[in-house]
Design brief:
By secondary structure, this protein is an alpha/beta fold. The protein is 41% helix and 24% strand.
């Protein structure tokens, strides 16, 4: 697996669990790098089942949301699946306001999200 600076990746069986290094995902250079690292999981590492665990993330900008949308599109192109978990109320509200909560499968906890992959 390639070197990652913005994310921590672990495998839970066939599920690739991604945790974020940054508490605040707002800096444009960091967001670009984050996008590249997430995309490389799909395009280079050939991961098709991803769980983004937002535990510890306090804030993210709309540019970071765009990276999530792009990642979701790349996964759909390879018949992959994406789930999100552990979103703080403030971040979940952004997903609700933008109606992205209808696009993404958002679960409360990591175990709940992992179980949902098996349904």
């Amino acid at each position: 697996m390639s070197n990652k600076r913005r994310i921590i990746v672990s495998d839970e069986g066939a599920i690739c669990v991604v945790r974020f290094v940054d508490k605040k995902i707002v800096d444009s250079a960091s967001i670009e790098q984050l996008g590249e690292e997430l995309n490389s999981l799909v395009l280079v590492d050939k991961k098709s089942v991803l769980l983004l665990n937002f535990e510890g993330v306090e804030f993210m900008s709309s540019a970071a949301l765009n990276k999530m949308i792009s990642l979701n599109s790349k996964l759909k192109a390879v018949q992959g699946r994406l789930k999100l978990c552990n979103l703080r109320a403030e971040i979940k509200e952004v997903f609700t306001i933008t109606r992205l909560d209808r696009v993404f499968d958002i679960r409360k906890t990591e175990p709940e999200a992992i179980a949902a992959f098996k349904l």
